[in-house]
Amino acid sequence: MLAVVIGFLGMLFFAASIPSTSLALEGFDPGFTTFTRAALAGLGAAVILLIARRPWPAKKHIRPLLTIAVMIAFAFPGFMAMSLTHVGPAHGAVVLGLIPLMSSSISVAMTGVKPPLGFWLASITAGVIVMIFALYESGTSLEWGDIYMVLGASATAYGFNLSGRLNAHMPSWEIICWSLVVILPVSLTGALLLWPGMPVASATTSLPWIWSGLIYSGLGAMLTGYMLFTMGLNMGGITRIGQLQYLQVFVTLGMAAAVNNDPLRLETLLTASIVTMLVIIAMRAKSR
Q1: pTM assigned to the model
Q2: Helices (H), strands (E): how many in the chain?
Q3: Contact between 226 and 176 (Cβ < 8 Å)
């Protein structure tokens, strides 16, 4: 039961990543938002590691930690921030619903394990439906926002897989913390260099709200969300706790409506429901 609670809380924290980033982008540009949220998360991770008195990782683990950091601290939030300058939060949430399938597909490529045909059929169908939804939203062609969001989803899926491999050598919460710490010099430098001129006043959102979105995206979504969800996965198992991720798209849609005033539309909810159903079918087919 504790594992379910921890995993659920992690999912909630992470689900707010799109709404909080969209809020931050009301006053900050995508580059500053990306570097600053990584810097905030890195500083928070450093405090946690100091309090826990964890030793510095072995030299052989530094390279994979750096790769994980690039994927989850820079690539995913960076592409997501660029995407949200083109599409709305609810639209982005539907695209990110493909993360479990992307993670599984990358796992297949890395391990060589061949899932059954049902996995691929459900995965391809889900991808086609998301593409149709994106085309319907844009009118004629895929938006750059869709391409950026797919790239971001692929990056975080790859980061998840690398974290799973490294989990044999250190606890999952340490992996995310050390990843953010080893990249901290880069994220701090980037944030300081991009600081001049920030934030830009918004006509619709107050500066305290803009700052709260930026701070939450780093300390809440990137640090706390990743830590809690991976802890839940380790405590309760991927098969059991991983299913909580199916709820994420709907939680994000609700948050986007409440925080970003992005209205819930019937076609968005229907697409999210169908994609989630296909994700569940694909994951169950793979587990069998």
Answers
A1: 0.88
A2: 16, 0
A3: yes
Q: What gap in Å lies between CA 213 and CA 246, rounded to an integer? A: 24
Q: How far apart (Å, rounded) are the C-alpha atoms in residues 56 and 186?
A: 18
Q: What is the DSSP string of 223-281?
A: IIIHHHHHHHHHHH-HHHHGGGGGGHHHHHHHHHHHHS-----HHHHHHHHHHHHHHHH
Please choose, from the candidates 77, 5, 63, 58, the residue with its C-alpha nearest in 3D space to the C-alpha of residue 223: 77
Residue with tokens 């500083």: 43
**The amino acid at 250:** F
Q: How big is the chain, counted in residues?
A: 288
Measured CA to CA, the distance from residue 96 to residue 244 in angstroms comes to: 14
SS3 of residue 283 by DSSP: helix
Cβ(10)–Cβ(229) below 8 Å: yes
Range of the structural domain that residue 20 is part of: 2-287
Contact 28, 85 (CB under 8 A): no
- Render each residue's pLDDT in the chain as its tens digit; 288 residues: 788 888 889 889 988 999 999 999 999 999 999 999 999 999 999 999 999 999 999 999 999 999 999 999 999 999 999 999 988 888 888 888 877 778 777 877 777 777 788 888 888 888 888 878 877 776 666 678 888 988 998 998 888 888 878 888 888 889 999 999 999 999 999 999 999 888 887 767 888 899 999 999 999 999 999 899 888 877 776 656 666 777 888 888 889 988 888 888 888 888 888 888 888 887 777 666
Report the number of distinct structural domains present in the chain.
1
Q: How far apart are the first and last CA of the chain?
A: 24
Cβ count near 112 (within 10 Å): 7
